[in-house]
Structure formats: structure tokens, C-alpha cells
Amino acid sequence: MNINALKFVFTLQIIFSICIASTMAQKPKPKPTSDSTIILSGKAGLPGGTYDITINKANGVFRLLYVVNDSLNEPAINNDKKYKRLFKILEKGEMFGVGTNDKHARDYAGLIRKYQVRSVDSLLFHENDNSSFNKLFKDICATDIKELNTFHGSTLDGFTVHVETIVPGKTQFIFVNSPNLTYHPLLTQLLSQTVGIYNASPNKDLISRTSIKDY
Q: Across the chain, what does the average pLDDT equal?
């Protein structure tokens, strides 16, 4: 891995939360036909960056969309003039911390998304085919999102998940560090069941490349 790649891996760690927040601010919210949506976004391990799992339920049918950002198109981004300019700002320490230019940070996060190489997969099933998952989904959508996280410390290991719930007339979101059954029972169960449903389907290997593969 060349020096630019190493810098990029380090940078992805620093701007993870900015990437997620910027993505949520810029892209239109999914519009449930009659029900609700839960979006799980998190770190997928180096050098992939992030994954996004969208769980949408409409008219009694679940659609699970799995997106994994596998790698970065380094030749393309290294030739991008805007990236070169923003990276110089980053190297000077002028993008984050005191005096942060939010526009620079958003633009930088946008370029990372633009040049990420993604893998996409999806599943469809009726709510009656998995009553346990259906109940869990309803419980989370009906819960004040702050109650999904009872741990308010910080961890140096593990990974971070951005959780967003979208129900008619209300959108909520929260960041959760290293989800576990003790402090985040509903979220951990959702991750476990979402991974389990995918792994139980034939010829599916996308999740095996992410940090949630063991849930």
C-alpha cells in the first residue's frame, strides 16, 4: 500500500462520523409506502470504510438492502484536483478541530463516497415469514431512539453504528459504540437477526466482509 493509501486509511477513521452525517444530510430520506424504515450505517473494517443496511417495511413486505463500501478507487481519486486541494488542507490540520471548515469536511466526505467501490445485495420477504423479526422491527420503531443506548462512555475497540429510524411524521438517529446485549439489547438483536437472515440465504457472502459478520 502506497503512502497515499496509508494516509487515506487513517483519514477514513477520522472522518467516519462526518461521512455518515453528511450522507444523511444530503441524500433524500426513504419514503415508506405505509410503514417504516431503519438504516444501520457503520464501519466495515480497513480499508473498506463503511457499510449501510436499510431495512424497509412497506405494505407488509420487508426489503433489506445491504451495501458494503469495499475499497477506494485510489488512481481516480488521486487524480481529482478537488481532492488534491482538500487533502492539502487536511495535511495542514485545518479541516478538523478548532476552526474546522464544515464545507471542506463535507466536500472531502463526499469525494470519499464518490470514489468508493461498492457491493450491493438485497432480500425480500413477507412479515408473516419471520414474526420474530417483524416484532423486533416494530418495537424499535416505537421506541424513543435514545433508549436504544444505555451506555454513555467511550470505547477504543469495536465499531460504531449510526442508527436512523424513519416512521411517518418522525425521524430519529443516534450513534452507538460497540453494540452489545448488555447496553443495547434491541439494536444488538436487530443486527444479529439481520445478519442471520442474510447468512441463511443461499449464495450470499457480502456480510462476511464486514465488521458485523459475527453478530
A: 74
